[in-house]
Structure prediction request, 180 residues.
Amino acid sequence: MVARALSAADRSLAAVEYVVIAAATLVALGLGLMQVVLRYGFNTGFAWSEEAFTLATITAMLFAGSRAVREDRHVRVELVFLVVPPRAGRVLRLIAHAVTLLLCAYYVYGGLLYVQFTWDIGSVSSESETPDWIVFSLVPLTMSLFVLRYVIRIARLLRDEDVDVHGLPRDGLPGREPRS
Prediction:
């Protein structure tokens, strides 16, 4: 039952990530192209487009980061996993996932505090007049996705269903005898 719920949540998050990454990338590409054509072709442009381009790019990257956690392609030190026994590697992955989950949860909390602060003071972007709380809401939103991804990773690791470390076999280097 829990496994099905986690799989359903995983698939739903993956679909949302895919749509947001694709849409934000296309928006950024379109805005960047438009700004270059306007600037160099017609010596004009829109003041808000740089901010929108940056926000679309950052949105795509943060959602792609969540996707990277899903596919175990996030940045980390992996040399240790190659030299320790599989059981120790599993424990170290569990610790790493838990610590990263806590860090992401802290970012959710800090992000929410900052969103509340920008809401309270009523700050807006000078270029686009967009309320800053809308822009900064991206941090707690995407960090919440990271938290969910790490909860799923931990649950799968505890059930011994976690993905391999960057496609490497769980038993160490190719051609090496598994350690016990």
